[in-house]
Design goal:
Layout lengths: L1 H32 L26 H4 L6 H4 L41 H7 L149 H4 L4 H7 L3 H4 L4 H13 L9 H4 L1 H6 L12 H4 L5 H4 L23 E3 L4 H8 L1 H4 L1 E2 L9 E2 L4 E3 L10 H4 L1 E2 L5 E3 L1 H6 L2 H4 L4 H5 L11 E3 L2 E3 L2 E3 L3 E3 L28 H4 L11 H5 L14 H32 E8 L9 E9 L16 E9 L5 E5 L14 H4 L10 E2 L3 E4 L7 E3 L20 H4 L5 E4 L8 E8 L8 E12 L3 H6 L4 H9 L2 E12 L1
Length: 803
């Protein structure tokens, strides 16, 4: 509060100085021009003298207190006219205000600013805040057209616009903030730090901005060249700052910085390196939710929106789990994932778990990865007996245990250490039991597990999500866990499946995900230009291609298109296997019992029936996972008449892909009837609006009540209320081994035709609702992929006779 008062007091002081300056200049102008020439411009001296310096007109006592450059940009007579005679023209920041002279009046601009702009920006224009490029809450006056040539943008906005992706912008390739700082030029805290001189992040900015000071473009890391002032710094590559990891460069190459390799393969090995000895683990992991965590287009959009709406105060909250290597090395969040190094794009990669050697528990994703090259120790659930046997024969097997060994052979760890916490469910809690700053639990699966039957029986998260059968604790596959020279090595032992069985599916470009060992031949941005929905690269397409056909580079080469198509097809096959396992997981957890009719079907009475939905899992609720993303699981029921026409349905989607409930635009506009019988297990955020009933919100932010949104701890302990004040979760999920009935009523008017009717039912599941995707700025292609990928669980039909 004290800091806010300081900032307000500073604004008052600036306003006072501006007023004093205006009065002083008004007196001088009146004295020089006389009453008849009161509105003459300063450069139209009655005596025909030279142009007068505005700085000379400012009293010495005031001039020294003005902001730098104020006397050079100030045009006094343009701001001293009475409101009834002065024509104000809205301009972008930096343009000169229009002067009124004896010449005929010029036409007014097409768009006129609202009255509040006249009031606040009229007399004090030089002190108006700088225009932000797309920032939240920027003054609308900065975007109105001007009748004159617009001035050049401020220095901090130049060269900060990222190139947009043509057509398929999957990963928010351009920064939605237009390169501007989330906090603008002025700090919300009045340039004072709540943490004093010391930063909890070791001097790194939560927003990934430059720390060197000066007018440095906050999106410098989007380009290949280092920021100005750092080119001659031999240690800039070892910095935690964004410039240490220039986007578009691979950390493994070290081409742009001699120290980049320290943050690359010699510090954080890629999963592709681990695949040389563990190809089965890699093949499973590359389609998993862990591998998808950072490259997910929806994550990129969701995180960007949260940062914008919270004024950047969420910091690295999301990235700590989704991209732990990026967080640890300080990779700038303002840089696109398309330009990120490979290890950053891998999300929750191998070392995110197997290079952790401390038990962290519930830490909201804050875990430290032990840096080291591929030869450094790894930590897991085994004791390293197979590795010890291999090292004893390293000469025979041609194994390399040190980076200095440049001869032929296979690189290998020097030791594999038993780490007991990785075998327990608590190891998963760091990212699967997460609370956002107001105290809202976004990830609750670990708490549900701890209070459920599975934990009481000693069943771990790994038993169901890494076992041999998707979603069931039915043991583990027994195989050798490594390969040396392409052959299995060691005795068969328990194999933890690294698919991490779950219901998710990908909406990313299939050239980017699943991760493919040959895909690095092209950059991620080049992959987004490959039209995989067409027949590019297919033999018949290439044979019949017209001679004048045009393609974007590098896809203007036939061989490149053919090779890329092979990767796409291989990834499609992997995605099909992953989708099948996702359905297996959901069908293992869901049981549909019914239908149960209350009475025999009759044309003269409504048909009433119910289904009983069982949560067959003893581990956690149905659904569970990230409630921040609000996954949807709902029941879709339809009645088809004897002619094959659908006469009644519940659980249908509107034209935008939303369920026909309170969040449907079509329902609100009367184009689609509300689905009053919808059975939806989605958890909702509810807020108290202080007036009226609670209402739903899509994002866990307090922007409905605060004019300036930023996250901060609540004033009341969360432990007292079990939720933050004025906001809570409305859970509709089914607890472990529980059930819930879905009741339906079909109007008699839909059953007027005698004959055999079909009652079809299925559970449906998707990770994100469409309205949330619209709210975070998802592209139409992302929404299409989400809705075409909806999982259908236990689809079946029942017949009944209407006499």
């Amino acid at each position: 509060m004290i800091l806010r008062v300081r900032s307000h007091r500073s604004l008052v002081a600036r306003t006072f100085l501006a007023g004093a300056l205006a009065l002083s200049l008004a007196g001088k102008s009146d004295a020089q021009s006389g009453s008849g020439d009161r509105f003459r411009g300063i450069d139209s001296d009655p005596a025909g003298g030279p142009h007068q310096d505005p700085a000379a007109m400012v009293p010495e006592a005031i001039r020294g207190q003005l902001p730098p450059g104020c006397t050079q940009t100030w045009q006094p007579t343009s701001h001293l006219h009475p409101p009834e005679t002065t024509r104000r023209t809205a301009r972008s920041h930096g343009s000169q205000p229009e002067r009124v002279s004896s010449q005929p009046a010029r036409p007014e601009p097409a768009v006129t600013p609202p009255p509040y702009v006249h009031q606040h920006l009229g007399q004090l224009a030089p002190f108006a805040p700088r225009a932000k490029a797309g920032g939240i809450g920027e003054a609308a006056a900065h975007r109105w057209p001007s009748s004159s040539v617009p001035a050049a943008p401020p220095a901090y906005l130049r060269n900060s616009v990222s190139p947009r992706l043509a057509g398929d912008d999957l990963l928010a390739g351009d920064d939605r903030l237009g390169g501007d700082s989330l906090l603008g030029e002025d700090s919300l805290l009045g340039e004072d730090s709540l943490l004093g001189e010391d930063s909890l992040l070791g001097g790194d900015s939560l927003l990934g901005e430059e720390r060197s000071g000066g007018a440095v473009d906050p999106l410098t890391s989007l380009g290949g060249a280092p920021a100005a002032g750092q080119a001659g710094n031999p240690h800039s590559g070892a910095s935690r700052d964004a410039a240490a990891l220039p986007a578009g460069s691979d950390l493994l190459s070290g081409a742009e910085d001699p120290h980049a390799a320290l943050l690359g393969e010699t510090r954080y090995p890629s999963a592709l390196t681990c695949a040389q000895c563990h190809p089965k683990h890699f093949e499973e992991w590359r389609t998993s939710a862990h591998a998808y965590a950072a490259i997910s287009p929806m994550y990129q959009r969701f995180e960007q929106t949260m940062v914008e709406l919270s004024q950047g105060t969420i910091g690295t909250f999301c990235a700590r789990c989704h991209s732990p290597v990026a967080t640890q090395v300080g990779y700038s969040r303002s840089a696109s994932a398309l330009d990120a190094p490979k290890i950053v794009r891998e999300g929750i990669t191998c070392i995110a778990c197997h290079r952790v050697n401390e038990a962290y528990g519930r830490t909201n994703g804050q875990r430290r990865i032990e840096p080291g090259d591929i030869h450094a120790p790894v930590y897991g659930g085994g004791h390293g007996a197979g590795l010890a046997d291999a090292l004893a024969q390293r000469e025979k097997l041609k194994l390399k245990t040190d980076a200095s060994d440049q001869g032929p052979g296979q690189a290998i760890h020097r030791s594999a250490r038993y780490f007991e916490p990785i075998t327990r469910s608590d190891f998963c809690a760091s990212c699967h039991q997460v609370a956002v700053h107001p105290g809202i639990w976004l990830e609750v699966v670990h708490a549900q597990y701890r209070s459920g039957p599975a934990a009481a029986q000693g069943i771990s998260c790994q038993d169901c999500h890494m076992g041999a059968v998707p979603g069931k604790a039915e043991g583990y596959e027994q195989i050798p866990i490594a390969e040396l020279a392409g052959k299995p090595w060691g005795e068969p032992r328990r194999h933890a499946n690294h698919t991490f069985w779950g219901p998710n599916y990908s909406i990313a470009h299939p050239g980017l995900f699943p991760i493919h060992e040959k895909a690095d031949r092209w950059t991620p941005r080049q992959w987004t230009q490959f039209d995989y929905t067409s027949d590019w690269g297919k033999p018949q397409f290439e044979r019949n291609l017209p001679a004048d056909a045009a393609f974007p580079p590098p896809w203007d080469n036939t061989d490149d298109r053919r090779d890329a198509r092979k990767i796409i097809e291989a990834n499609f096959a992997s995605l099909d296997r992953k989708r099948a396992s996702s359905i297996d997981v959901m069908e293992a957890a869901i049981g549909i019992e019914g239908p149960f009719f209350e009475a025999a079907p009759d044309r003269h009475a409504d048909l009433r029936f119910r289904f009983r939905i069982h949560n067959l899992s003893d581990g956690h609720n149905l659904p569970t996972g990230s409630l921040g993303a609000q996954p949807q699981v709902w029941l879709n029921v339809a009645v088809i008449n004897p002619e094959g026409r659908r006469v009644w349905e519940s659980g249908y989607l509107d034209s935008r892909g939303d369920l026909a409930d309170v969040r449907s635009v079509d329902v609100a506009q009367g184009r689609v009837p509300r689905d009053a019988q919808l059975f939806n297990l989605q958890t909702k955020f509810l807020i108290n609006t202080l007036r009226g009933t609670d209402r739903e919100v899509s994002l866990p932010l307090n922007f409905n009540q605060d004019q300036l949104v930023f996250l901060r701890p609540g004033a009341v302990p969360v432990s007292v209320l079990n939720h933050p004040p004025l906001i809570r979760m409305e859970a509709h999920s089914i607890p472990p081994l529980g059930h819930r009935d879905a009741h339906y009523r079909v109007p008699a008017g839909a059953l007027q035709q005698p004959g055999v009717y079909r009652l079809s039912v299925r559970m449906r599941s998707r990770p994100e609702p469409t309205y949330l995707m619209h709210e975070v700025g998802a592209t139409p292609d992302m929404i299409r992929r989400m809705n075409t990928g909806i999982l259908n669980i236990h689809p079946r039909s029942h017949t009944f006779m209407v006499p």
